[in-house]
């Protein structure tokens, strides 16, 4: 197995992409790219179910990708699902089959996270000066970002993509002025909520990424409709050319590949709306996109600049969390995790890290009130944009906070398809013990953990003199013992 290789896979609504890179002198060097058009969003029904045919195309593609991933370490692979897998009612079924084929979990990421990663992909592959507007038109959504350097300043994901708009406005491949104008108007409606923010921030240059924008750019250049770059005037001339045809199948432009022909008109309609609404004068093309953003996240983490850590620190600061108490709980939870990791088969990534952030943030619900703090904390963590976290890991973080105290109502445990339920429950137990043991909020009060493990049963060894001096704290630990017993989990205390 080649330990220098890293892989990023983007499961888009129109195409699946894979990028392979080699880590050389601390930098990512791309050595291979694979792309398959799968049209995952095509044929989605009114109940938002992906069609059996679309799912089969996607899984066939992933079977090929799996061969290329077989010699890469699992912790050096990231697989991200985007708009269609966020939206589809039967996404969980597809994700489970995909994970089985790839022998690796699939992360379904939020629209905001997708936009952030797209910007990172562009920022790491282009020389950017000043504030830059970045646009990525995918199969199901369009991401729009304003950033400076490596820092995004505004992120949004709008529900308009070349596959979804093709199905809505150009069914059967028919082209007409009414259909084109209706698609442009629909894109305008999608853009309306963010226009004020984006116009206020402004930008000095504009870059477009993704296959749709590249195809429009190539057609404009090869049909000699522009001297370089995408402009409003060039798009207007292209629209006239498109409307001289009645069917999408009749479009035979230079630079228009057969696999992009079906969704080309929808992409042009979305671009026209973007240029009109924001407004944009000129857009140039960037090779960087979501998969490059995923790759460069590896580079950031290797340099100990994990965006998830910055996210947790920013939340703690924003909600004025008691840092001394969160540190006490964090230290206790991690010490117990390390003692139990081998016996309980707890993997450091991602569980140790997520447990640490849960310890740091478990009291975030105090911003609402103390009553029901565990529910308030879970609500905030589940419903806040958390850069760097995929949907499953964000749900796990919120789940740990939800169950950090009070009775264990495990019927409320959410589905976590990428996480083993037994591992999740064991992390919950660790956090609960750390919270219960630090109830008095005093530094240096706790003796070092001494714990014996038998299956799911724990026996904590505690100094007798310490127990005698801390009756209130012992009552708290005994209450936790009762909560565990209700679930059939053994928790005993041995006095030493």
TrEMBL record:
Gene Ontology cellular component list: plasma membrane
Sequence ranges assigned to domain Ppx/GppA phosphatase C-terminal in this UniProt record: 307-481
UniProt entry keywords in alphabetical sequence: Cell membrane, Hydrolase, Membrane
Biological process according to GO: polyphosphate catabolic process
Enzyme class: hydrolase
Recorded GO MF terms: exopolyphosphatase activity
Entry's localization field: Cell membrane
Main location: membrane
Topology versus the membrane: Peripheral membrane protein
Swiss-Prot/TrEMBL cofactor(s): Mg(2+)
InterPro entries: ATPase_NBD, Exopolyphosphatase, GppA/Ppx_hydrolase, Ppx_GppA_C, Ppx_GppA_N, PyroPPase_GppA_Ppx
Start and end residues of each Ppx/GppA phosphatase N-terminal domain: 19-300
Subunit organization: Homodimer.
Family membership noted in the UniProt record: Belongs to the GppA/Ppx family.
PANTHER family associated with the record: EXOPOLYPHOSPHATASE
NCBIfam families given in the database record: exo_poly_only
Protein name: Exopolyphosphatase
């Amino acid at each position: 197995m080649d330990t220098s290789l890293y892989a990023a896979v983007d499961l888009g609504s129109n195409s699946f992409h894979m990028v392979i890179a080699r880590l050389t002198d601390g930098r990512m060097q791309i050595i291979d790219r694979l792309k398959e058009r799968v049209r995952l969003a095509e044929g989605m029904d009114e109940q938002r179910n992906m069609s059996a045919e679309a799912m089969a195309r996607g899984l066939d593609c992933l079977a090929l990708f799996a061969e290329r991933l077989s010699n890469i370490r699992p912790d050096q692979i990231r697989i991200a699902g985007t708009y269609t897998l966020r939206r589809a009612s039967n996404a969980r079924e597809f994700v489970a089959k995909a994970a089985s084929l790839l022998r690796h979990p699939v992360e379904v990421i939020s629209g905001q996270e997708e936009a952030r990663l797209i910007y990172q992909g562009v920022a790491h592959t282009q020389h950017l000066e000043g504030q830059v507007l970045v646009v990525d038109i995918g199969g199901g959504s369009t991401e729009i970002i304003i950033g400076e350097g490596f820092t995004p300043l505004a992120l949004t994901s709008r529900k308009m993509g070349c596959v979804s708009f093709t199905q809505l406005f150009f069914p059967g491949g028919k082209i007409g002025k009414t259909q084109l104008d209706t698609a442009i108007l629909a894109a305008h409606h999608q853009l309306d909520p963010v226009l004020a923010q984006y116009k206020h921030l402004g930008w000095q240059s504009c870059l477009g990424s993704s296959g749709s924008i590249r195809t429009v750019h190539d057609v404009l250049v090869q049909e000699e409709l522009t001297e370089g770059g995408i402009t409003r005037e060039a798009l207007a001339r292209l629209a006239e050319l498109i409307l001289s045809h009645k069917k999408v199948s009749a479009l035979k432009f230079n630079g228009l590949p057969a696999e992009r022909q079906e969704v080309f008109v929808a992409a042009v309609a979305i671009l026209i709306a973007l240029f009109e609404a924001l407004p944009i004068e000129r857009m140039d093309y960037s090779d960087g996109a979501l998969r490059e953003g995923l790759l460069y996240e590896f580079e950031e983490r290797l340099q100990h600049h994990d965006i998830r850590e910055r996210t947790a620190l920013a939340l703690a600061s924003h909600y004025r969390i008691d840092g001394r108490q969160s540190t006490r709980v964090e230290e206790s939870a991690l010490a117990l995790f390390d003692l139990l990791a081998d016996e309980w088969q707890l993997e450091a990534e991602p569980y140790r890290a997520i447990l640490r952030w849960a310890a740091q943030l478990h009291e975030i619900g105090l911003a609402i009130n103390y009553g029901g703090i565990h529910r308030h904390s879970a609500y905030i963590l589940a419903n806040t944009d958390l850069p760097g976290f995929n949907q499953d890991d964000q749900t796990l973080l919120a789940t740990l906070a939800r169950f950090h105290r009070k009775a264990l109502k495990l019927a409320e445990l959410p589905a976590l398809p990428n996480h083993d339920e037994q591992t999740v429950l064991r992390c919950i137990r660790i956090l609960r013990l750390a919270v219960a043991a630090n109830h008095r909020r005093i530094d240096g009060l706790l003796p070092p953990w001494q714990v014996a493990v038998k299956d799911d049963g724990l026996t904590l060894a505690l100094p007798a003199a310490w127990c005698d001096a801390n009756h209130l704290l012992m009552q708290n630990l005994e209450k936790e013992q009762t909560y565990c017993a209700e679930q059939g989990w053994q928790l005993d205390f041995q006095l030493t």
